Amino acid sequence: MTEKNFKFSFAEQDLVIELGQMANLSAQAVTLRYGDTVVLTTVNYNDNSINQDFFPLTVVFQEKLYSIGRIPGGFLKREGFPGEYATLCARLIDRSIRPLFPEGFNYEVQVVNNVLALSEDCDVRFVSAFATSLALALSGLPFQGPTATVVVGRINNQWIINPSKQQLIDSELELIVGGTVDAINMIEASAAEIAEADLLEAIELAHTKIKSLIGFQTEVIKAINNPKVELPLLLIPDEIASFLKNYQPQVDELSKITDKKGRSNKFKTIFELAKTAFFSANPTWITDGAKEAETLKFIHNGLEDLLKVTMREMILSTNHRIDGRKINQIRPLSSKIDILPIVHGSAIFNRGETQVLSIVTLGALAEHQIIDDLGKDDSKRFMHHYNFPPFSVGETGRMGKPSRREVGHGALGEKALLQMIPNEQDFPYTIRIVSEVLSSNGSTSQAAICASSLALMAAGVPTKAPIAGIAMGLIKAKDQYVVLTDIQGLEDHLGDMDFKVAGTTKGICALQMDIKISGLDFKILSEALQQAQVGRLAILDSMNQVIDKPRTQLAANAPKILQKQVPVDKIREIIGTGGKVINKIISQANNVKIDIEEDGRILIYHQDQAAVEAAWKLIDEIINVKPIQVGDEFAGSVIKILNFGAFINLKNNTDGLIHISQFSKFFEKKIENLNDVVKVSDNFNVKVAKINDKGKIDLEIIK
């Protein structure tokens, strides 16, 4: 391919497209430079269709630490499985392009974003999303783009497009918006309780910038003018679709079944009837195993399409839903705290058939997570992990490593909850929440946020305010549409939008939008946000009936903490040579945990408050040395035995001598060899009898 370059200025940086320079055996490769950030994006596909229920698109975000001039940690010193940041970046890109492929395009497509160089001033997510769109558009595949994604921040009430790493850290908003020239199709955000109106303003600004980026892409696509790839779409054959219409009355009956399990079982019965009848009437369709499996998929998907039409027409024509609710009605809510013993905090949240259990664990600051990736954080002391086991939907399945979906939902909850977590100075703990999905019928990620907020307050974490999440849906047919509050699983699966909004009574803390249509206009977006606000406040009211503010005390077995400030020049004395002193303090104070910061801040943790105070007393004796005087009493241990006596450690590095004669008095017998009656580490209560001019201390034993 002939090398070609294109240049565009965006957000005070040059955006340079390089074609034909790298990876020329790929179906399409684009090298994109934005400032000093460089990403190579490749697109490849398989021209044999795959009979699956979903479009087999894979988006890969390859983190390479050489891109920031760093060698990976660990024993192998090379990159391994994708980390959380890479997974989230891949999902972000996926969500903006997946809706832009036609139905029935069931060909495996792989997009790989290779981060070759990364500048802290130029967001790699923006670069990768742009390069992905352009590579797909140039590949000839039926991609209904182009699309673009921008990042928006806000500092001191000023909007910032594609903020730098430091600006993102300082920003009260991190908004990522993807869209086409006509509409928005992907949103993700974390914010410090931003108002709905302000968020809409930021999204509109982002879309304006997106249009200019798409204009640049369009010029490049026209200039290259690559041929289209002709691949037949895998659609349900007319013969099967026509046959399945006979089952429309039975499918319509599904709309009268309100519970998920009952509806699912009835659907399986209809499927078995249709399958048996079709193969009986059309025996030639069973020619081999592969064709039979394909036909079964067509029958299943055809029946699901009938249910989709029934459900959507019912909502659009009657404003009533398949479970009997009105369009703005939330499912029954219930919550409970203190579900589990031993743990530091727990809560369970129920919304209809969706149920999530969240568990809080508190630890020392030293237990924070160290992050070795390309994101803006090097470590974090607050973690939210989300688990979605197959039993939550009544199925068998793989258990083990978290899926990309689990990582994504956990991160969304973490973004929301993080806004309410107290700072390190006020609450010097590492905090981990695990949300276990026990039963799923839609909106589990938002239920996890609700359960986690309750568990945090129950654990005594001084959160700033309760926080709740809700998922909004959409049914759209031409110019007619209905926004749904609190969607269940079927409405998510057969609907057009999953719009998750989490926040407090004051504003939005996190947001994520996925859609299955090409895009949304701002009228629908605004209506969804306003409807979500009403729903969120109703959920918060329900949660507040259980607990409305954090407890003032931690759980009995949660680590207690004492935070003190010591002179920096005393840190060395507290630690001691090779950690000798600090290890002795830890041992004497029932194995407390002690963190010492460079600025002299000391944090002592233990489940027993007495152990914490004992450790601080030992440290205080080091930093506030009081001179030993005649008459002072100590409980000391033998550290050395000589012919004429034994040395006892009184405190820190101060020792005193008990003469052998004192031991004779104590044991009431003459002692020839002190080793016969005394061993190193024996403990004695002693009193200072004499201190000579050189500071040497003579002791006598107290009976």
TrEMBL record:
<dbReference type="InterPro" id="IPR004088">
    <property type="entry name" value="KH_dom_type_1"/>
</dbReference>
<keyword id="KW-0460">Magnesium</keyword>
<keyword id="KW-0808">Transferase</keyword>
<keyword id="KW-0963">Cytoplasm</keyword>
<dbReference type="InterPro" id="IPR027408">
    <property type="entry name" value="PNPase/RNase_PH_dom_sf"/>
</dbReference>
<dbReference type="GO" id="GO:0005829">
    <property type="term" value="C:cytosol"/>
</dbReference>
<dbReference type="InterPro" id="IPR015847">
    <property type="entry name" value="ExoRNase_PH_dom2"/>
</dbReference>
<dbReference type="GO" id="GO:0004654">
    <property type="term" value="F:polyribonucleotide nucleotidyltransferase activity"/>
</dbReference>
<dbReference type="GO" id="GO:0000287">
    <property type="term" value="F:magnesium ion binding"/>
</dbReference>
<dbReference type="InterPro" id="IPR036345">
    <property type="entry name" value="ExoRNase_PH_dom2_sf"/>
</dbReference>
<dbReference type="Pfam" id="PF00575">
    <property type="entry name" value="S1"/>
</dbReference>
<dbReference type="GO" id="GO:0000175">
    <property type="term" value="F:3'-5'-RNA exonuclease activity"/>
</dbReference>
<keyword id="KW-0694">RNA-binding</keyword>
<comment type="similarity">
    <text>Belongs to the polyribonucleotide nucleotidyltransferase family.</text>
</comment>
<keyword id="KW-0479">Metal-binding</keyword>
<dbReference type="Pfam" id="PF00013">
    <property type="entry name" value="KH_1"/>
</dbReference>
<dbReference type="InterPro" id="IPR001247">
    <property type="entry name" value="ExoRNase_PH_dom1"/>
</dbReference>
<dbReference type="InterPro" id="IPR012162">
    <property type="entry name" value="PNPase"/>
</dbReference>
<dbReference type="InterPro" id="IPR020568">
    <property type="entry name" value="Ribosomal_Su5_D2-typ_SF"/>
</dbReference>
<dbReference type="GO" id="GO:0003723">
    <property type="term" value="F:RNA binding"/>
</dbReference>
<dbReference type="Pfam" id="PF03725">
    <property type="entry name" value="RNase_PH_C"/>
</dbReference>
<dbReference type="InterPro" id="IPR015848">
    <property type="entry name" value="PNPase_PH_RNA-bd_bac/org-type"/>
</dbReference>
<dbReference type="GO" id="GO:0006402">
    <property type="term" value="P:mRNA catabolic process"/>
</dbReference>
<dbReference type="InterPro" id="IPR036612">
    <property type="entry name" value="KH_dom_type_1_sf"/>
</dbReference>
<feature type="binding site">
    <location>
        <position position="492"/>
    </location>
    <ligand>
        <name>Mg(2+)</name>
    </ligand>
</feature>
<dbReference type="InterPro" id="IPR004087">
    <property type="entry name" value="KH_dom"/>
</dbReference>
<dbReference type="GO" id="GO:0006396">
    <property type="term" value="P:RNA processing"/>
</dbReference>
<protein>
    <recommendedName>
        <fullName>Polyribonucleotide nucleotidyltransferase</fullName>
        <ecNumber>2.7.7.8</ecNumber>
    </recommendedName>
</protein>
<feature type="binding site">
    <location>
        <position position="498"/>
    </location>
    <ligand>
        <name>Mg(2+)</name>
    </ligand>
</feature>
<dbReference type="InterPro" id="IPR012340">
    <property type="entry name" value="NA-bd_OB-fold"/>
</dbReference>
<keyword id="KW-0548">Nucleotidyltransferase</keyword>
<dbReference type="Pfam" id="PF03726">
    <property type="entry name" value="PNPase"/>
</dbReference>
<feature type="domain" description="S1 motif">
    <location>
        <begin position="631"/>
        <end position="702"/>
    </location>
</feature>
<dbReference type="InterPro" id="IPR003029">
    <property type="entry name" value="S1_domain"/>
</dbReference>
<dbReference type="Pfam" id="PF01138">
    <property type="entry name" value="RNase_PH"/>
</dbReference>
<comment type="function">
    <text>Involved in mRNA degradation. Catalyzes the phosphorolysis of single-stranded polyribonucleotides processively in the 3'- to 5'-direction.</text>
</comment>
